[in-house]
């Protein structure tokens, strides 16, 4: 499935949530979608948990 189709489905889900559930439902669906995205990337191995806890300076020069 292409990223354009995934983006369209996510946009439609957010639109339905906003229309039928209001702004609070829109925010809830968006937040849960973002969490699901991060967890999915982590499970696929594209994201390392340490990326969230290292400082920027350590990433630039390669030190831990």
Automatic annotation (TrEMBL):
Record keywords: Membrane, Transmembrane, Transmembrane helix
Source organism superkingdom: Bacteria
Keyword Transmembrane assigned: yes
Transmembrane regions listed in the UniProt entry: 12-39
Protein's UniProt name: DUF2273 domain-containing protein
Native source species: Streptomyces plumbiresistens
């Amino acid at each position: 499935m292409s990223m354009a189709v995934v983006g369209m489905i996510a946009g439609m889900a957010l639109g339905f949530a906003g229309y039928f559930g209001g702004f609070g439902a829109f925010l809830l669906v968006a937040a849960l979608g973002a969490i699901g995205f991060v967890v999915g990337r982590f499970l696929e191995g594209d994201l390392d948990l340490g990326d969230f806890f290292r400082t920027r300076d350590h990433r630039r020069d390669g030190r831990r």
